[in-house]
User: What shape does this take?
Amino acid sequence: MPRIQRSFTLSTLALAVLAASGQVYAATATVPVSCKLIGADRLFDGNEVQFNKSVLVVGDKVKAVGDYASLSGQCATRYNLGDATIMPGFIESHAHVTFQNVSKDKILEHGITTVQDTGGPLLPPQGGNGSLRLLSTGPILQAQGGYPLNVFTPDDTGGGYDKVGLAIAANATESQVRAVVQNLAAGGASAIKIALETGGEAGAPWMMSHGHGEVPAAPWPILSQQQVAWIVSEAHNQGKRVLAHVGENSGLEIAYAAGVDMLAHMPCAAVDANLLHSAVHDGMEFTSTIDTLASCGDGLYQNAHVVGHVYQEHAGEGLAFPLVYGSEIAHDNVPWGINGEELHLMLHLGSGDAIDFGDVLNVLRSATSAAAARLATGIPGLGTLSPNAPADLIAVKGNALERFKLLEYPDMVMSGGKLVVNKFSPTR
Assistant: This one.
């Protein structure tokens, strides 16, 4: 047989085989495309809940969400999970994975597909295709002699772009401060994190020994109002948000006046309720970390209640839900994966006087689509199950809309179309 004719015959045969298996999506396809169809009784797409729907994954992307029957002819690898819940992989907005050397594989296996590392070495974005997607803010910007280097590295001259913190001198000029932000942005920082931590809050983890000797006496020096304003201005010029570590009132005052976008924690000590009300009303947001800081006690919960009530009061005016899910992965007192208790606390403390299903959706969005929007990664559809979104998803047996605890032990985890955990059998 002539070579050209033989080649044509083999190609034609290959296409016929692929078509029979349901893996050809266009007449021009010449190679198999990996696909998976996954259906369940409940599917949260990152924004809304859909019932008896399926997600079709082709390669590393979501191709479609729809009825199982209508999509089943497009893929031979099918999972009909039944009484189960499918969701986008969770996004952890406040972690210390690199600094604390926590296993990325363990985090991924427990349902977190994207993390934002806050504090620690500045790293370019990485992972996302069968491995944990890791984004980095780089080191925490702080005043000379202040937190975090005064706790983790008592000689804070050791700070730098590869350390937990980077100290800014009290006499640093505007151009010097802006240059630090520019360097972080150029190195791939997902956001700019600063410390406005004066210390002294009862029960705060940073007031406890970290194995580096005695915790320095408070108050600790913090960045000036002018320095924070320069940081915020330059960060916004670079398309980056600013996160501030704030534990009490004076730090909140500086952050609010300078236009900081988000507090990296719910403040540990009770802050002025009127100031907090104004900050929330004007759009300041909060990474939750409520479970992590539970030892702070009543002040923490009081602040969270205020935030929740302000949201309920002004949601009708278009105010966005101000809490973004974050559990501070790497701390020993929280799971190194999805934290069901954090979700539970966000729901009950951030929902005002009454809880309805809309509040449940707010909490789930805060760990998926809303978290992705605030990271501004430029990855279309991150945190959702929508066409062309990254195929990052989790599934659990049972109704995770009613019981968040189920999410801590996912029965299926997919990253970039690759199954990392799978306790389900394909449908025959």
